[in-house]
Design a protein that fits this description.
The complex is a heterodimer. Chain A is α+β, with helices and mostly antiparallel strands. Chain A has 4 helices and 9 strands. Classes of the chains: A alpha+beta, B mainly beta. The interface between A and B is large, with 48 and 48 residues.
Chain lengths: ~200, ~140
Amino acid sequence: MAVLAVAVAIGVALFLMHPGAPNETVVVLPGPDGKTGTVVVQRGDSRQVLDQPYATSRSGQAEVARLSDAEVRENFGATLQGLPARPTAFMLHFTTGTDELTPESKAELQNVLAALKDRPLPDVLVIGHTDTVGDAAGNDRLSAQRAETVKGFLVDIGIPAARIRTAGRGERELLIPTADDVDEPRNRRVEINVR
Amino acid sequence: MRFTIAAVLLGFTASAWAADVGEIKVARGVAHLERGTERLPVRVGMPVQQADKLVTGADGTVGVTFSDNSLLSVGPNSVLAIDRYVFDSTTHAGQFDSTLSKGTLAVISGKIVKQSPDAMHVRTPSAIMGVRGTEFIVRVD
């Protein structure tokens, strides 16, 4: 009897000492566009596919659960707030043959500057382009000048120049494919990638 | 020349050494980055490399932006190892494997997953997650 009691005690102790599988939770979140991706959770032989908003896999539970948005915020708020700002891109357009922004793009520039100010340490890549009017070498120079002009606006609001890269792609990467010597406003642009 | 163009177009950060695969964008509370035998307090702007380990205290949170635009946040009381990070900025092919041994991790996947679903994995002590383009949270208690 005593032996059995000791054996049970040892068994209980072993059970308590062995933590088994840790308590794990995986939650899939809807993206900003409302679409939800897929995460496949493989746990030993069990495989759970999470492809619905807030679908939740918990260790030791065969069923896929579903957390509420409020539960996610409450449990994971601090971690979610630590996500860096999403990379984003802007496009500005120019009047023909110049590094002068179109009136619409002058307004858009204010949005770009506001978005950049929100980031503690932005990386910026500015790529200038031209349409096919003029010769290729001149367009290389013009596209680089457009990129430098935009860089100047960003430096003016306090973004360190070392965080901004520029490139001029001339007429090599037309947004709207055209023949040579075609005045196409949508090709006269600068792309600004921010992250 | 090819290298120069690639560096201009794709070497996004100012300190874009080949070994740097990401940059710390958010640093709150107590948090360290372990690299080999070094233990560095995290600060915004610090580069992240393959094989680095991020360790946070009770009030710590670290946000990282990777070369492929994957975003990651390591929450309080957590340990996350970057096991493998490879990204070809021309083809967008790559591999991103990490291990969360404890704590909380939030992920927004980037170009690697967009290009090749199942090229990103997160391991925990009991599971392995295959990521097919999404946002998700993992917690290990």
